[in-house]
């Protein structure tokens, strides 16, 4: 992480944002806020919408735009699970691990996903289809244990229902919106 933040803030020439997104950030997003630093979240979101994830150069670009130290933007980026520092799979499986889901068996759900997908939390399958994450309460405790797949919620889950869900996602029987 230290290496990420050693830069003085200059943007690598390899990083290019489309004119459309750059214009959106400078002409639509920034003017909405009294202070540029207040726009950190929508600026990061706009970049992620275009790029799919937020690389080091994206962070430096955002830091320049909102006139904040890269370390501050990094602290925001790493606080929210909705921001990705690496490319993610077509289906982003986010298992809630907070109290209600914990009590109702989210560990079994995570274990089943690990087993079926052959990956650990924080990893993506080799075919690029699935990324597995753990997140805090998604405000759907009545569905515990539950997961979010891209923008959709599923629950209450059992290990058997996890198997069905994975098959439905793979086969296209279960349609979900793309991550971004
Ligand atoms: S504890 Fe899992 S959705 Fe609230």
Set out the fold topology.
Blueprint: H1 2-5, H2 19-29, H3 40-51, H4 56-66, H5 70-79, E1 91-96, H6 99-103, H7 106-117, E2 130-135, E3 147-149, E4 152-154, H8 159-171
Parallel strand pairs: 1-2
Antiparallel strand pairs: 1-3, 3-4
Helix pairs in contact: 2-3, 3-4, 4-5
The structure holds FE2/S2 (inorganic) cluster.
FE2/S2 (inorganic) cluster binds at residues 96, 98-101, 137-138, 140-141, 144, 146.
Describe this structure in words.
By secondary structure, the protein is of the alpha+beta class. The protein has 2 domains: 2-79, no CATH class; 91-171, Glutaredoxin. The protein contains 8 helices and 4 strands, in the order H-H-H-H-H-E-H-H-E-E-E-H. Strands 2-1-3-4 form a 4-stranded mixed sheet, with helices on one face. A hairpin with a 2-residue loop joins strand 3 and strand 4. Helix 2 runs antiparallel to helix 3 and helix 3 (40-51) runs antiparallel to helix 4 (56-66). It starts with a helix and ends in a 9-residue tail after the last helix. The model has no long low-confidence stretch (mean pLDDT 90). The structure holds FE2/S2 (inorganic) cluster.
């Amino acid at each position: 992480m230290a290496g990420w933040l050693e830069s003085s803030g200059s943007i690598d020439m390899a990083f290019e944002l489309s004119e459309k997104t750059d214009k959106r950030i400078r002409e639509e997003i920034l003017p909405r806020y009294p202070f540029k630093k207040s726009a950190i979240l929508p600026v990061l979101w706009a970049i992620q919408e275009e790029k799919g994830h937020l690389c080091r150069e994206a962070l430096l670009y955002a830091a320049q735009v909102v006139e904040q130290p890269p370390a501050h933007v990094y602290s925001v980026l790493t606080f929210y699970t909705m921001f990705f520092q690496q490319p993610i799979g077509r289906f982003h499986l986010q298992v809630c691990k907070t109290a209600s889901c914990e009590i109702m068996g989210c560990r079994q759900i995570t274990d089943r996903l690990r087993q079926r997908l052959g990956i650990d939390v924080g990893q993506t399958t080799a075919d690029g289809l699935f990324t597995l994450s753990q997140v805090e309460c998604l405000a759907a405790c009545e569905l515990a244990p539950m997961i979010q797949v891209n923008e959709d919620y599923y629950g209450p889950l059992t290990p058997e229902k996890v198997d069905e869900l994975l098959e439905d996602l793979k086969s296209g029987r279960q349609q979900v919106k793309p991550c971004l």
